[in-house]
Model the fold of this input.
Amino acid sequence: MTESPQRNRPDSPSSLSGGDDGRQSQLTKRGGGAPATRGRTTIADGVVEKIAGMAARDVVGVHAMGSGISRTFGAVRDRVPGGNKSVSRGVKAEVGESQAALDLEIVVDYGVAISEVARDVRENVIAAVERMTGLEVVEVNIAVSDVKLPDEEDDDDESESRVQ
Done:
C-alpha cells in the first residue's frame, strides 16, 4: 500500500464556525461584521450624469445631447486650451442613497423613429447606471429638443477658424 501525503488545506467553513479556536468569532467581533457593511459609499450626481451621457451617446439615432444653447456654449468651452468635452451635457441626475432619477435632453437624427430611439436610450442608460453604480434607476425622462437634418451644419463641428 502506498500512502499519499496529506496536503495542508484551509479549514472548512463548518470547522471555523463551531471550532474551539474562536477565529471566526474574533473576526466578527473585531471588525463589527462583514467588510462590505463597514462604511458608506456615496456617488456624486456628476458621476451618474457622465455614465448616463456616455450610455445615451452610444445609441444609434442620437446625434447630440443638450439644447442648442448648451451645445453652443459647450463648443466654445471645448475650444479653450485645456478644456475637455462635456460628457454630461444634456443630462441632469438626482442621486439618493439607493436610487437615481435622470433627465436627458437629446437631439435625434432625421429619419429615425423617435419613440424607438427614446426607448433604446432609456434601456441603455438604466442598464449602464445600475450596473456601474448599483443604484436603482427609478425614472429616465427624455426630452427631444431638436432633429438634425441631413443638410444642417453641426454647431460642434465648425470647420476652421477664420483667423489662422
Observations:
- Residues 12-17, 156-161 have pLDDT under 50 and may be disordered.
- The longest helix spans residues 114-133.
- The helical segments are 13-18, 23-31, 45-57, 68-79, 114-133.
